[in-house]
Amino acid sequence: MKFSLAALVVVLALAHGSQAAQSPEVEKLAQYFQDLSAQLTSTTQELVQKIQSETFVEDGKAQLQQIQAQLAPLADNMQAQLKPLAENMQAQLKPLVDNFQAQMEDLFRKLMDQTKSLGQ
Fold first, then answer.
1. Comparing C-alpha atoms, which of 99, 98, 101 is closest to residue 109?
2. What's the CA gap between 83 and 98, in Å, rounded?
3. What is the spatial distance between Cα 4 and Cα 68, in angstroms, rounded to a whole number?
4. What are the two backbone dihedrals, phi and then psi, of residue 15, each rounded to the nearest 5 degrees?
5. Which of 27, 53, 77, 119, by CA, is between 20 and 30 Å from 59?
6. Where exactly are the structural domains of the chain?
7. Using CA atoms, how far apart are residues 95 and 89, in angstroms rounded to an integer?
8. pLDDT range class, residue 108, cuts 50, 70, 90
9. pLDDT digits (tens, 9 = 90+) for 3-52
10. What's the gap between Cα 77 and its chain centre?
């Protein structure tokens, strides 16, 4: 009986020792799986953010295209209305500009004549 009790103590001591020896390995495995889980979570969050940003950009492009399609006829209409107005203004201003240019040329010519007479 003493022998079996001693054997039992030895077996328990060996079992406890082997568990103690395995404990760092188990802790290393647990830490590895925790790190792996954290990395997976981080990567998943980054991927979700990237997909959301791409979706946001695509939605923005689609909205801009719709706005451009709506504004194109308006721009064409405004251009059609402003072209005759611009041509009319140009026709009215041309004689005034030509007259101003002729006056400036005449003034410049007189100034040159006076400068020549001072030099002689």
1. 101
2. 22
3. 92
4. -65, -45
5. 77
6. 1-53
7. 11
8. very high
9. 555 565 555 665 555 555 556 776 787 788 888 788 888 888 888 888 88
10. 33
